[in-house]
Amino acid sequence: MQRVKKILNDTADVVAETVEGLVLASDGTTRLMDGHRVIVRQPSAREAGRKGKVGLLVGGGSGHEPLFSGLVGQGLADAAVCGNVFAAPSPDAIAAATQDIDDGAGVLYVYGNYAGDVMNFDMGAELAGDEDITVRNVRVRDDVAAAPKERIDDRRGIAGDLFVVKIAGSACESCDTLDEAWRITAKAEANTRSIGVAVSAGSIPETGKPTFELGDDEIEIGMGAHGEPGVSRQKIGPADAVVDQMMAALLPDLPFERGCEVALLINNLGASTMMELLIANRRIRHCLDQAGVGVHRTEIGHFLTTQEMAGYSITLLKLDDELKHHLDAPARSVAYSRG
Amino acid sequence: MQRVKKILNDTADVVAETVEGLVLASDGTTRLMDGHRVIVRQPSAREAGRKGKVGLLVGGGSGHEPLFSGLVGQGLADAAVCGNVFAAPSPDAIAAATQDIDDGAGVLYVYGNYAGDVMNFDMGAELAGDEDITVRNVRVRDDVAAAPKERIDDRRGIAGDLFVVKIAGSACESCDTLDEAWRITAKAEANTRSIGVAVSAGSIPETGKPTFELGDDEIEIGMGAHGEPGVSRQKIGPADAVVDQMMAALLPDLPFERGCEVALLINNLGASTMMELLIANRRIRHCLDQAGVGVHRTEIGHFLTTQEMAGYSITLLKLDDELKHHLDAPARSVAYSRG
Fold it and tell me: Where does the record place the DhaK domain (chains A, B) (predicted)?
């Protein structure tokens, strides 16, 4: 099979060059740590006059740009640690980033719930603990298709990362203690649910090969962010039917009850058209209306991608006044600027 | 050939459903005009207490989402008029939108320089003139590959639309007269240059067929926003060589002289990975450094797409203090929120 055509230099350099390009795209608001693929906010909170701020470190495998590296900035993360493509960042890099951003109040880690990330972030925290830095974790487990609700710790993190990092960013900016920032962020994570649909696979830059194959008339519901198998491979149907099926899995899971208010995210996995996402949005809103669920805020676009995978995911975050406050707080980064 | 796989309902309804989804994604900040595919800011400037504001109407063919429809909002356009896929909006819809947003100070039109758009916006302006509404135009002609500089009126509008609309939005918000808003917007347009590279074609939803074919190892430099032929079809080379070639066409065209400062936009045409755009950004910055050109602000992501075309365009806008002020002014819409 032909390699998927992409405009790259040496494929061995994709992550180093991506990180370099991201820092340049931030127009001076981030820098790269010496010796590590860690993107750090610049000026730091301390340099900007905010002493003793709770640190926020995010990260995971590369290849999902603009997450996580595009979420470093004011009201968002203090640093992002970037692994190789679809691979967890190293414990050393995590520990170095933790030391860089800690200002005495401790550091909150937010990352997707994948075995490699869990292991390496835990080892990074241990290394940082040797330097007397307190660390707490929020692991995002929003993908309802990854495991049944009873085994929520087996669920993976997908686009819901965006909402959890956004709220963590505001909480770490405004809370006096790591425990309080953790409490708010953990609540956001617990209230977030997502499900995806894949239309075609993405490819890994080094191999140039798609990570799976779908038939010319097939889609897959519940596909993971690296091409992990979903819950249903099926003939492609009308958009409204696809959305209905996804919403039927999403709404009862938390559950999102009549009268509640949510933030809605429709995330492009890569190559789908904005048209398809907007067409889905009509039907999502119809389903939410039917369920008596209100929408406080909509985000639609590319946030967590799987290279050039075609498809999208739907994320709902159930809000209360506290979460709404932190979701709406100002933020500024390469991938997310609001307020 | 198999239809390109997309998650749609009836393909005859794509534009109506896209517009509906866009309005819903705006969380109450836009509405749809009765009887027309026109997205209008809500509350209007007048309803928000800004009387006698110069109106800003943007628009063009659909299929390029999030432009133009995603640029309606505070600090941006008062309305966007949406044609069929890759087809100019009707004079009737343009005239109706003009009447809806005029508050006595006249209306500025900003749109891409395509024969169909020019004809229909001119006819719309004539109809609006019958109602004693003054209209002025800025036609975006940023694509350096579309025609030689001597025939700049034959050049098409591509992603540079974003910068021109952003500056027009701020100018129409703050200027007392249509002539003054036009002057600033026309300067922005005159200072904007773009060039694109296509890796693969997009398809039209109704036919499901790609608009052109490229070989498995080919790219095309200068491809237009609807798949119009570019200046060079060639074997794909390293990213740095592709960028060097594009910058060599871009920099001397205005020209962007040593010591000047620009805003930089790297626009994803649809299906390219963010990784490719970030990798390009490194080299673009290298070329700009070599040319002694400084970067005031970088935008990177999906702004003007050609369905699922893979590829990207590079846009430079030469800034002065006035343009910088309007570029940096706050804005809020589905596709663009800053400050």
Answer: 10-336
